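A further point concerns the way the authors explain their paired sequence and structure data. Showing the layout once, in full, would remove most of the difficulty. For illustration, here is how one protein appears when written out as sequence plus structure tokens:
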Amino acid sequence: MGAGASAEEKHSRELEKKLKEDAEKDARTVKLLLLGAGESGKSTIVKQMKIIHQDGYSLEECLEFIAIIYGNTLQSILAIVRAMTTLNIQYGDSARQDDARKLMHMADTIEEGTMPKEMSDIIQRLWKDSGIQACFDRASEYQLNDSAGYYLSDLERLVTPGYVPTEQDVLRSRVKTTGIIETQFSFKDLNFRMFDVGGQRSERKKWIHCFEGVTCIIFIAALSAYDMVLVEDDEVNRMHESLHLFNSICNHRYFATTSIVLFLNKKDVFSEKIKKAHLSICFPDYNGAWTHAFLRPCSPCRLVAPIRMTPTSPPGLLGPSLWPHQPQIQNPKPC
């Protein structure tokens, strides 16, 4: 009996120790759920975390992005070429129309993710055309990757023999997120588990599997989306969709006590766009300046404050766990 009791006590102590260790580990684990509408930049945030907290991308990993970057570049110029017809824009040089036909044919025949010299030459000639540039300036009227101008303007570098993508090249690359992608990193004795989920409407039903035990939601909203429509529904403004989604998440019963970090993303794109397209496109009642001066630190609070107010909240009170922030996407490393 004594030996049996001793063995049971030892097993009990080991079990208690294991439970205590697991509890301490759980207490140091922060579960982050990355949410937002499609094309808001969630995956870019994940890449930033890897660059900042996981020593960035290895040479081998960077090289794997070449095919994605070439694919993004080709998709972008093809989107512009197709929009030339839709928007009834003429090429500045009639010879570029032949280039466009050649490009459309080559796109159907080349190996995906490659960039033959003949194709890159055609793309560079097209990009310099005044008609193509005019069409690019009207990008809000059709679907075009945010990275289009970045890659197309620097294509000569991208196709140089021995090309290795820079961190900036990697950050701007775009692959549609499907399913759930987990990224883990540590910071100041805390272990973070970040879950990135697809933002398109068809992907949102998968979010429910991530809800349990969430420490914090990071909601990504693209400021530059105010004059754009959804990929899946060209009747719906992207900013309106983002506001609707944000409102539903803030007022969901699952998140009544969950902290929410609001990232107002793509400020650099917005800063350029606001000079040409007025905010009244999205918000008809807005009659302010054609600048981004209103985006001072306190302004996002006033913009989203009414969303998370309860019936008993004092006027002007921002929910106790809602934190607006404007991330520096293109300069991810701390100074």
